[in-house]
Amino acid sequence: MLFEGEGEGPLVLVSSATATPQGLYAGFARALVKAGARAVLTYDYRATGRSPRPAGWRGRINYKDWALHDFAAALAALEAVTPGHPVVGVGQSYGGHALGLSGAADRFARYAMVASMTAWFGFLDDRHAWARMNLVGVPASLLFRDTPRWLGIGEPIPGSCFRDWARWCRMRNYFFDDPDLPETARFEAVRLPILAIGLTDDRWATPRGIADFMARHPNAEVEERWISPQDGGGAAIGHLGFFRSRFATTLWPPLIRWLVAGERIGSSE
Fold this sequence. Notes:
Elements lengths: L1 E3 L4 E7 L10 H9 L2 E6 L22 H15 L7 E6 L1 H9 L8 E4 L14 H15 L15 H12 L22 E7 L7 H9 L5 E7 L24 H10 L8
Helix pairs in contact: 2-3, 4-5
């Protein structure tokens, strides 16, 4: 969905987390426009949310397709709003992974990553994650075209994407160990400023996982910042909570200023 304003700030691409609909980011997008962003684009990855499969589609949908194709297509659509205008981006979890894989990092002035990490099971603080994904999730993904809601991962995603995700999580270096993903070499070319935001009550994007993922961007200017529930008034944040509207006046303003004006977000804990 495209949100347009009359400000002279940058265009902003918002890339979502896995199994998270673009609607979660609508309030944040409106806040960006109010703060002066020229336009903000949210979108759903293929075969999810408002981007359903075309009628009669039979091909396999790969988890990597979201980064290699959908991210790039969304960026091109946003750039077409005001050609030549500066572009910045923010990605949550998978939305942060997509930047390096896409090969389009040079088209952004800066990029924020919220809860983006190397998701190897050994880095997680969720001790039930391996069993839930491999003993329950993978079999379910073979029975159903899309993951059922009772699986508890969020909105339905293609079963093939879920299996790719589970496989990456079993790899010590996550998708960097996938021999069918040579695009990981593109991370060397990421040279823009990156703001990495971690949440202290997030059992998936732990300090270990975030530090490891940021190290995969050796030529980027990385600034890492940590936010606690106390910063948001005491409410739990977790892996996916940052963009919920209850944090509009507490957690969002520093990130919005960083995206729209390049203003430093402040000291880390």
